[in-house]
Design goal:
By secondary structure, the protein is of the alpha+beta class. The protein is built from 8 helices and 4 strands. Strands 1-4-3-2 form a 4-stranded mixed beta sheet. Bound molecules: protoporphyrin IX containing FE (HEM). Protoporphyrin IX containing FE (HEM) binds next to α4.
Protein backbone atom coordinates (compact mmCIF):
# COMPACT_ATOMS: atom_id res chain seq x y z
CA UNK A 1 0.00 0.00 0.00
CA UNK A 2 1.31 3.35 -0.93
CA UNK A 3 2.26 5.74 1.82
CA UNK A 4 -0.14 8.42 0.63
CA UNK A 5 -3.07 5.95 0.60
CA UNK A 6 -2.26 4.97 4.19
CA UNK A 7 -2.27 8.61 5.29
CA UNK A 8 -5.57 9.17 3.54
CA UNK A 9 -7.20 6.21 5.32
CA UNK A 10 -5.86 7.41 8.70
CA UNK A 11 -7.21 10.89 8.04
CA UNK A 12 -10.61 9.40 7.19
CA UNK A 13 -10.58 7.28 10.35
CA UNK A 14 -9.63 10.33 12.47
CA UNK A 15 -12.39 12.32 10.82
CA UNK A 16 -15.07 9.76 11.61
CA UNK A 17 -13.75 9.51 15.18
CA UNK A 18 -14.06 13.28 15.48
CA UNK A 19 -17.62 13.18 14.18
CA UNK A 20 -18.50 10.39 16.59
CA UNK A 21 -17.11 12.28 19.59
CA UNK A 22 -18.86 15.47 18.45
CA UNK A 23 -22.15 13.56 18.27
CA UNK A 24 -21.50 12.14 21.72
CA UNK A 25 -20.81 15.61 23.11
CA UNK A 26 -23.99 17.00 21.56
CA UNK A 27 -26.00 14.14 23.04
CA UNK A 28 -24.46 14.72 26.49
CA UNK A 29 -25.23 18.44 26.17
CA UNK A 30 -28.87 17.63 25.24
CA UNK A 31 -29.10 15.22 28.18
CA UNK A 32 -27.71 17.95 30.47
CA UNK A 33 -30.21 20.52 29.13
CA UNK A 34 -33.16 18.14 29.63
CA UNK A 35 -31.94 17.36 33.16
CA UNK A 36 -31.62 20.99 34.12
CA UNK A 37 -35.07 21.77 32.61
CA UNK A 38 -36.60 19.01 34.79
CA UNK A 39 -34.75 20.40 37.80
CA UNK A 40 -36.07 23.90 37.06
CA UNK A 41 -39.65 22.58 36.82
CA UNK A 42 -39.16 20.72 40.11
CA UNK A 43 -37.80 23.86 41.74
CA UNK A 44 -40.76 25.96 40.55
CA UNK A 45 -43.27 23.32 41.70
CA UNK A 46 -41.56 23.03 45.10
CA UNK A 47 -41.60 26.81 45.45
CA UNK A 48 -45.29 27.01 44.50
CA UNK A 49 -46.15 24.22 46.94
CA UNK A 50 -44.27 25.84 49.83
CA UNK A 51 -45.68 29.28 48.99
CA UNK A 52 -49.22 27.82 48.93
CA UNK A 53 -48.67 26.11 52.31
CA UNK A 54 -47.29 29.35 53.76
CA UNK A 55 -50.15 31.44 52.40
CA UNK A 56 -52.75 28.96 53.66
CA UNK A 57 -51.09 29.02 57.10
CA UNK A 58 -51.11 32.82 57.25
CA UNK A 59 -54.66 33.25 55.90
CA UNK A 60 -56.10 30.56 58.17
CA UNK A 61 -54.29 32.13 61.17
CA UNK A 62 -52.31 28.97 61.76
CA UNK A 63 -55.26 26.59 61.31
CA UNK A 64 -54.11 24.72 58.18
CA UNK A 65 -51.21 24.41 55.70
CA UNK A 66 -53.47 22.94 53.02
CA UNK A 67 -56.44 25.32 52.70
CA UNK A 68 -58.49 22.94 54.83
CA UNK A 69 -59.84 25.57 57.23
CA UNK A 70 -63.26 25.25 58.73
CA UNK A 71 -63.90 28.98 58.75
CA UNK A 72 -62.64 30.47 55.55
CA UNK A 73 -62.29 34.25 55.56
CA UNK A 74 -65.26 35.94 53.91
CA UNK A 75 -63.34 37.07 50.86
CA UNK A 76 -62.70 33.41 49.99
CA UNK A 77 -66.42 32.65 49.82
CA UNK A 78 -68.34 33.15 46.55
CA UNK A 79 -71.51 33.94 48.57
CA UNK A 80 -69.77 36.81 50.31
CA UNK A 81 -68.84 38.43 46.99
CA UNK A 82 -72.34 37.77 45.69
CA UNK A 83 -73.87 39.53 48.71
CA UNK A 84 -71.39 42.41 48.33
CA UNK A 85 -72.39 43.07 44.76
CA UNK A 86 -76.08 42.33 45.01
CA UNK A 87 -76.50 44.96 47.74
CA UNK A 88 -78.29 44.70 51.11
CA UNK A 89 -81.52 42.77 51.58
CA UNK A 90 -84.48 44.23 53.46
CA UNK A 91 -86.66 41.94 55.58
CA UNK A 92 -89.66 42.48 57.82
CA UNK A 93 -89.54 40.77 61.26
CA UNK A 94 -91.93 38.14 59.84
CA UNK A 95 -89.65 37.41 56.90
CA UNK A 96 -86.59 37.33 59.16
CA UNK A 97 -88.27 34.72 61.38
CA UNK A 98 -88.02 32.20 58.50
CA UNK A 99 -84.22 32.26 58.76
CA UNK A 100 -84.10 30.51 62.13
CA UNK A 101 -82.69 27.15 61.11
CA UNK A 102 -85.97 25.24 60.77
CA UNK A 103 -86.37 25.80 57.03
CA UNK A 104 -83.96 23.59 55.10
CA UNK A 105 -81.61 25.32 52.68
CA UNK A 106 -82.12 28.76 54.27
CA UNK A 107 -79.15 30.49 55.91
CA UNK A 108 -79.18 31.45 59.61
CA UNK A 109 -79.85 35.16 60.06
CA UNK A 110 -79.97 37.27 63.19
CA UNK A 111 -80.37 41.00 63.63
CA UNK A 112 -78.80 43.41 66.10
CA UNK A 113 -80.01 46.98 66.25
CA UNK A 114 -81.80 46.52 62.92
CA UNK A 115 -78.81 45.13 60.98
CA UNK A 116 -79.10 41.58 59.66
CA UNK A 117 -76.12 39.22 59.77
CA UNK A 118 -75.66 35.79 58.22
CA UNK A 119 -74.39 33.58 61.05
CA UNK A 120 -74.60 30.25 59.18
CA UNK A 121 -70.91 29.67 59.93
CA UNK A 122 -71.76 29.47 63.63
CA UNK A 123 -74.05 26.48 63.12
CA UNK A 124 -73.06 24.80 66.38
CA UNK A 125 -74.08 27.92 68.34
CA UNK A 126 -76.98 29.27 66.30
CA UNK A 127 -78.38 26.15 64.64
CA UNK A 128 -81.36 24.24 66.09
CA UNK A 129 -80.26 22.90 69.48
CA UNK A 130 -77.32 25.33 69.68
CA UNK A 131 -76.67 27.31 72.88
CA UNK A 132 -77.52 30.63 71.17
CA UNK A 133 -80.23 29.39 68.80
CA UNK A 134 -82.73 31.83 70.36
CA UNK A 135 -80.91 34.75 68.70
CA UNK A 136 -81.62 33.67 65.11
CA UNK A 137 -84.65 34.67 63.09
CA UNK A 138 -85.17 37.83 65.13
CA UNK A 139 -83.75 41.08 66.42
CA UNK A 140 -83.15 40.43 70.12
CA UNK A 141 -81.10 43.56 70.77
CA UNK A 142 -82.48 43.88 74.30
CA UNK A 143 -81.19 40.44 75.29
CA UNK A 144 -77.77 41.24 73.82
CA UNK A 145 -77.51 44.03 76.39
CA UNK A 146 -79.39 42.57 79.33
CA UNK A 147 -78.23 38.95 79.09
CA UNK A 148 -81.82 37.86 79.89
CA UNK A 149 -82.23 35.31 77.16
CA UNK A 150 -85.80 34.27 78.06
CA UNK A 151 -87.60 37.52 78.85
CA UNK A 152 -85.78 39.95 76.56
CA UNK A 153 -85.89 38.43 73.06
CA UNK A 154 -87.06 41.70 71.55
CA UNK A 155 -85.64 44.75 69.82
CA UNK A 156 -87.62 47.00 72.19
CA UNK A 157 -84.95 48.79 74.24
CA UNK A 158 -87.32 51.09 76.14
CA UNK A 159 -86.37 51.46 79.80
CA UNK A 160 -83.36 49.13 79.65
CA UNK A 161 -81.07 51.86 81.07
CA UNK A 162 -82.77 51.11 84.38
CA UNK A 163 -80.50 48.08 84.76
CA UNK A 164 -77.62 50.50 85.34
CA UNK A 165 -79.52 52.95 87.57
CA UNK A 166 -79.44 52.79 91.38
CA UNK A 167 -82.64 52.05 93.32
CA UNK A 168 -84.18 54.97 95.17
CA UNK A 169 -84.04 54.75 98.94
CA UNK A 170 -85.80 57.70 100.68
CA UNK A 171 -83.56 57.43 103.75
CA UNK A 172 -80.29 57.55 101.80
CA UNK A 173 -81.55 59.96 99.15
CA UNK A 174 -82.61 62.51 101.79
CA UNK A 175 -78.89 63.28 102.24
CA UNK A 176 -79.04 65.38 99.06
CA UNK A 177 -81.11 68.49 98.33
CA UNK A 178 -83.78 68.24 95.63
CA UNK A 179 -81.58 70.18 93.20
CA UNK A 180 -78.58 67.96 93.91
CA UNK A 181 -80.74 64.87 93.45
CA UNK A 182 -81.97 66.14 90.11
CA UNK A 183 -78.41 66.81 88.94
CA UNK A 184 -77.26 63.40 90.18
CA UNK A 185 -80.12 61.58 88.46
CA UNK A 186 -79.29 63.34 85.21
CA UNK A 187 -75.68 62.15 85.42
CA UNK A 188 -76.74 58.61 86.37
CA UNK A 189 -79.06 58.45 83.36
CA UNK A 190 -76.35 59.73 81.00
CA UNK A 191 -73.94 57.11 82.31
CA UNK A 192 -76.58 54.36 82.00
CA UNK A 193 -77.44 55.37 78.41
CA UNK A 194 -73.76 55.32 77.54
CA UNK A 195 -73.40 51.78 78.93
CA UNK A 196 -76.43 50.56 76.99
CA UNK A 197 -75.10 52.15 73.81
CA UNK A 198 -71.67 50.58 74.32
CA UNK A 199 -73.19 47.19 75.17
CA UNK A 200 -75.19 47.12 71.95
CA UNK A 201 -72.33 48.55 69.89
CA UNK A 202 -70.08 45.80 71.18
CA UNK A 203 -72.28 43.17 69.51
CA UNK A 204 -72.88 45.14 66.31
CA UNK A 205 -69.09 45.48 65.99
CA UNK A 206 -68.59 41.85 66.89
CA UNK A 207 -70.79 40.60 64.04
CA UNK A 208 -69.61 43.27 61.60
CA UNK A 209 -65.93 42.49 62.14
CA UNK A 210 -66.15 38.73 62.56
CA UNK A 211 -64.42 36.81 59.76
CA UNK A 212 -67.09 34.10 60.24
CA UNK A 213 -70.19 36.21 59.70
CA UNK A 214 -71.35 38.75 57.19
CA UNK A 215 -73.70 41.68 57.14
CA UNK A 216 -76.49 41.01 54.65
CA UNK A 217 -79.03 43.77 55.13
CA UNK A 218 -81.52 45.57 57.33
CA UNK A 219 -84.76 44.97 59.14
CA UNK A 220 -87.73 47.04 58.03
CA UNK A 221 -90.44 47.91 60.53
CA UNK A 222 -93.56 49.96 60.43
CA UNK A 223 -93.33 53.43 61.89
CA UNK A 224 -94.03 53.57 65.64
CA UNK A 225 -93.88 49.75 66.09
CA UNK A 226 -92.63 50.09 69.66
CA UNK A 227 -95.50 52.24 70.85
CA UNK A 228 -97.94 49.50 69.85
CA UNK A 229 -96.28 47.10 72.31
CA UNK A 230 -96.62 47.18 76.11
CA UNK A 231 -93.69 48.86 77.87
CA UNK A 232 -91.16 46.09 78.59
CA UNK A 233 -90.18 45.44 82.20
CA UNK A 234 -86.66 45.07 83.44
CA UNK A 235 -85.97 41.33 83.73
CA UNK A 236 -85.84 39.95 87.28
CA UNK A 237 -82.13 39.09 87.20
CA UNK A 238 -81.23 42.68 86.37
CA UNK A 239 -83.79 44.12 88.76
CA UNK A 240 -82.16 42.09 91.56
CA UNK A 241 -78.69 43.35 90.62
CA UNK A 242 -79.59 47.03 91.14
CA UNK A 243 -78.04 48.66 94.19
CA UNK A 244 -78.93 51.64 96.36
CA UNK A 245 -76.89 54.85 96.18
CA UNK A 246 -73.84 54.98 98.39
CA UNK A 247 -74.73 57.28 101.35
CA UNK A 248 -73.15 60.69 101.04
CA UNK A 249 -71.00 60.32 104.18
CA UNK A 250 -69.49 57.05 102.87
CA UNK A 251 -68.48 58.29 99.44
C1 LIG B 1 -75.03 39.76 78.05
C2 LIG B 1 -74.65 38.52 78.20
C3 LIG B 1 -74.19 37.62 77.07
C4 LIG B 1 -74.44 37.71 75.74
C5 LIG B 1 -75.27 38.75 75.00
C6 LIG B 1 -73.76 36.60 75.10
C7 LIG B 1 -73.78 36.34 73.76
C8 LIG B 1 -73.03 35.38 73.15
C9 LIG B 1 -72.98 35.16 71.74
C10 LIG B 1 -73.73 35.97 70.70
C11 LIG B 1 -72.14 34.14 71.50
C12 LIG B 1 -71.79 33.56 70.16
C13 LIG B 1 -70.51 34.20 69.69
C14 LIG B 1 -70.14 33.76 68.27
O1 LIG B 1 -71.00 33.82 67.38
O2 LIG B 1 -68.97 33.40 68.07
C15 LIG B 1 -71.64 33.68 72.78
C16 LIG B 1 -70.80 32.61 72.96
C17 LIG B 1 -70.50 32.08 74.19
N1 LIG B 1 -70.88 32.59 75.40
FE1 LIG B 1 -72.05 34.17 75.71
N2 LIG B 1 -73.14 35.85 76.05
C18 LIG B 1 -73.39 36.43 77.27
C19 LIG B 1 -72.96 36.00 78.49
C20 LIG B 1 -72.27 34.85 78.68
C21 LIG B 1 -71.92 34.34 79.98
C22 LIG B 1 -72.27 35.01 81.32
C23 LIG B 1 -71.26 33.18 79.77
C24 LIG B 1 -70.69 32.23 80.75
C25 LIG B 1 -71.29 31.84 81.83
C26 LIG B 1 -71.18 32.97 78.34
C27 LIG B 1 -70.59 31.91 77.72
C28 LIG B 1 -70.43 31.76 76.38
C29 LIG B 1 -69.72 30.65 75.75
C30 LIG B 1 -69.05 29.48 76.47
C31 LIG B 1 -69.77 30.86 74.38
C32 LIG B 1 -69.22 29.96 73.30
C33 LIG B 1 -70.33 29.00 72.97
C34 LIG B 1 -69.92 27.92 72.05
O3 LIG B 1 -68.78 27.92 71.56
O4 LIG B 1 -70.80 27.06 71.80
N3 LIG B 1 -71.81 33.99 77.71
N4 LIG B 1 -72.19 34.45 73.76
Amino acid sequence: MADSELRQRKAKADDSKDKESKKLRTRTQEDDDAGSFRLDVLRVLTFLFLASCGLSYVISSGESFFWGMKNKPNYMKPDWWKAKFSGPIYLTPDELSKYNGYEKGKPLYLAVNGTIFDVSNGLNMYGVGGSYHFFVGRDASRAFVSGCFKEDLTADMRGIEEMYLPIDDPEIDSMWTAAEMEEMRKKEMEEAEKRVYEGLKHWVDFFTNSPKYQKVGYLVREEGWQEKLPMPELCKANQDKRKRRIPRDQQ
